[in-house]
Design brief:
There is one protein chain. The protein is of the alpha/beta class. The chain has one domain: 2-Layer Sandwich (Nucleotidyltransferase, domain 5), CATH 3.30.420. It has helices at residues 39-56, 69-80, 97-102, 107-128, 147-159, 188-199, 215-220, 250-258; strands spanning 3-11, 29-37, 85-92, 136-141, 177-180, 237-240. The protein has a six-stranded mixed sheet. Helix 1 runs antiparallel to helix 2. The longest helix is centred in the middle third of the chain and has 22 residues, at 107-128.
Length: 267
């Protein structure tokens, strides 16, 4: 059966000027997330998305940030009922250090690296459950980005993996990656929400009194991919470079560490 990987992000990919409490700039954290579905789930998810829009009286939106808090919780609960596997990569830009200098603060290269890490996690998981290259396709929300450069980069990594985790990309044909504009592929709205839910676990601004919101993640946490013991860290959630590097609030870190999910069923 085919698997489609829907990918979206939350936060800004900019790394040259990152905001703090007194200086404006891009978000201190960046999250890229995926919702992996098979055809039967896609049909159900499409119907539920339309029903949700009718219930809240909102036919379209740009991002999950357009929802009220109760609607986000409700959408998260409906998403948690779907037979879907979720993945996310979280980067704390304060820890990029030498890497940021090496790429000369290029936000496109940073974005590509985060997508690579995400696809490594997805492909590793799909390999375990018996997926084949011809059964995996990827849909990204179209943004102002050089996708040709991304494909060349992923091809290079696939053909010459320098790290063991990159070997999982043998499952991915980079030419199976397509892009869709906002509103062109409704199922991308699930990936958008997953990215938003994870991002809110690390997002601290004056507007939220510097208190992250973990509720949305908790509602969907059981749908993240996990290892044979059900742990999601380094499987459904990749922390760059590790969970300590994220400088999480204690309650958020506890949620990430203690969450347990159904282990993968081997193909």
């Amino acid at each position: 059966m085919p698997f489609t990987v829907y990918i979206d992000e939350s936060g800004d990919a900019g790394i040259k000027k990152v905001r703090n409490e007194t200086t404006p700039g891009s978000s201190p954290y960046f999250v890229v997330a995926a919702a992996v579905m098979q055809p039967a789930t896609e049909r159900i998810a499409t119907k539920r998305l339309e029903a949700f829009k009718n219930e809240i009286g909102k036919k379209s939106w740009k991002h999950a940030t357009d929802f009220s808090h109760p609607n986000k919780v409700y959408f998260a609960r409906r998403l948690s009922e779907l037979h879907v596997r979720l993945f996310a990569v979280i980067s704390n830009k304060a820890t990029l250090g030498e890497y940021a200098a090496r790429i000369d603060g290029d936000s496109q290269k940073f974005y590509n690296k985060c997508v690579e890490y995400l696809l490594e996690r997805v492909c590793s998981y799909l390999s375990v459950i018996g997926a084949a290259e011809e059964n995996v396709s990827v849909v990204l929300e179209r943004r102002n980005h050089d996708y040709d450069a991304m494909l060349r980069y992923l091809l290079k990594v696939r053909e010459n993996p320098l790290h063991s985790e990159a070997k999982s990309l043998t499952l991915l044909n980079p030419f199976s990656i397509t892009t869709r504009a906002k509103g062109e592929e409704p199922l991308l709205e699930y990936a958008d929400f997953v990215a938003h839910a994870v991002f809110q676990c690390v997002n601290k601004t004056k507007a939220n009194h510097f208190i992250p919101e973990r509720r949305y993640f908790e509602e969907i946490s059981k749908r993240f991919a996990g290892d044979k013991s059900g742990r999601i860290i380094n499987v459904g959630i990749k922390c760059i470079h590790d969970i300590g590097s994220l400088d999480l609030d204690a309650d958020v870190k506890d949620v990430f560490v203690r969450t347990r999910v159904m282990p993968p069923l081997r193909g």
